[in-house]
């Protein structure tokens, strides 16, 4: 059955890397640009937040 609500029983990563800016090094005409990344921890809810999950047949099989 399809999961329209984003069932939480799928594996998720603990976080992800996002761009935090660029660093430019050197003097013209030779410059190096380096991307700076930062790690962001997953702060999303781990439990199902759908309040009708007990009565909705589309939630059948989702670990609550």
Strand order in the largest sheet:
1-2
Unreliable segments (pLDDT under 50, ≥5 consecutive)? none
User: Whole-Å distance between the termini?
Assistant: 16 Å
Rounded to the nearest angstrom, the radius of gyration is 21 Å
Silhouette: rod-shaped
The helix count comes to 0
Number of separate domains: 1
Task: Summarize the structure in words.
Helix content is 0%, strand content 39%. The protein is mainly beta and 64 residues long. The chain has one domain. β1 and β2 form a beta hairpin. The model has no long low-confidence stretch (mean pLDDT 81).
Q: How do the helices and strands line up, and which of them pair or pack?
A:
Blueprint: E1 15-27, E2 30-41
Q: Which key phrases capture this entry?
A:
64 residues, mainly beta, two-stranded antiparallel ribbon, 2 strands, rod-shaped
Summarize the structure.
With 64 residues, this protein is mainly β.
């Amino acid at each position: 059955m399809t999961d329209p609500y984003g069932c939480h029983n799928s594996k998720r990563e603990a976080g992800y890397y996002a761009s935090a800016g660029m660093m430019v090094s050197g003097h013209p005409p030779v410059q190096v640009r380096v991307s700076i990344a930062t790690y962001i921890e997953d702060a999303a809810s781990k439990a199902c937040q759908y309040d009708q999950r007990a009565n909705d047949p589309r939630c059948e099989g989702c670990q609550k």
